[in-house]
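Protein modeling request. Please complete all fields; requests missing the sequence field cannot be processed.
Requester role: graduate student
Desired output: 3D structure, token encoding
Chains: 1
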Amino acid sequence: MQTPSFPPALAFTHVFGYGSLVNLRTHAHADARPVQVTGWRREWRATTLRQLAFLSVTPDPGCSIAGLTARVAEADWPALDRREAAYDRVSLPPESLTPGVDGHVAIYAIPPGGGPALEDHPILLSYLDVVVQGFLDHFGPDGAAAFFDTTTGWQAPVLDDRAAPLYPRAQPVLPETGVLVDAALARRKVRRIAAG
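Delivered output (196 residues):
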């Protein structure tokens, strides 16, 4: 499956969030709705931009992922592009979205290609907590479990910064979120690194 092409920038009306954008505490985009997207899967990616893993997506015709679509005002796209500066803004085919969305939907994906070893680029626990809390809010415990199941790259270690979050949009961690995240990481035998 080939990565879909871009329509003109101003043709986009919605963004599909599959990570931190699922947590509505991290943005104020309107009309957020749960959606399934077929043909993509999540993956942790290492890049040369920073010493931490990025959550991205890659085309995969056999996979479906949950997330939220939200309406993005024309004037707000530059700020969203800055937030997602490591990513390309890619068009989602309308038929990949269930339920459908009235407008052009963008998904942010790191361009394909080789990169540094993922094992040397830890996942920020404060970021992961924010993502999982969003999935709990909108999809419940089963949806949060599905997030882990439809994401690859868990060979990356996790940097445990929960006590002093490094993620700029970190949120207070609810006890049930911390328990779920910790258990999911333990089941996958993800290595944890103490922060500081």
